[in-house]
Design a protein that fits this description.
Elements: H1 2-33, H2 68-74, E1 85-90, E2 99-101, E3 106-109, E4 115-116, E5 127-132, E6 135-140, E7 148-149, E8 152-153, E9 158-159, E10 165-168, E11 171-176
Length: 177
């Protein structure tokens, strides 16, 4: 009886170590796949028409954080019908109803950002809205007072949906597609 149980234990350990080896090699493969050349369209580039991309040209694609699914599905998207924007509901220094184009994403805060907030409760780089495929995602950038989506504090990146309410300090915005 003992040789059988010892054999089963060694068999289990072999299967466990093979599984761990598979996990480690898969992780290394995924990490190496994502370490290509830096993506184009960084901060300050391509702002020819104030909409986040040169006049008459589509935005530069950034696949640095995209999965293969987004890359494959990207050709199916019709970006002509997709005009995500952030509409000011209430924010110091902004007229209510002003809309900001978000097709290329944007950073919000008091510092040198795409959407500047004159709000004492906003951090210099408070929150970022970035594009992942066709989905826009909002994330708090470690701000002191937090970012709220539909009245709930953000605890990590969250996808935006048409009509979502975003609050940073006393500034309020509506996301529209």
């Amino acid at each position: 009886m003992q040789p059988v149980s010892v054999g089963l234990k060694f068999g289990f350990l072999i299967v466990l170590y093979l599984f761990l080896f598979w996990v480690a090699t898969s992780s290394l493969f995924d990490l190496r796949r994502g370490s290509g050349p830096p993506a184009r369209g960084g901060r300050g580039e391509g702002r020819g028409d104030g909409a986040g991309h040169p006049a008459g040209q589509p935005p530069a694609r950034n696949y640095s954080d995209a999965t293969g699914m987004y890359i494959a599905a990207d050709s199916l998207l019709e970006l002509e019908d997709y005009e995500p924007r952030l509409v000011v509901e209430r924010a110091a220094g902004h007229e209510p109803g002003v809309a900001y184009d978000l097709l290329g994403g944007a950073t919000l805060g008091r510092g040198d950002v795409e959407i500047h907030l004159d709000d004492q409760f906003a951090s210099s780089r408070h929150a970022r809205i970035s594009r992942r495929g066709r989905t826009l995602v909002i994330e708090d950038l470690g701000s002191t007072n937090g970012t709220y989506l539909n009245g709930e504090p953000l605890t990590g990146p969250q996808p935006l949906h048409d009509g979502d309410q975003i609050r940073i300090g006393g500034s309020e915005f509506t996301y529209l597609e």
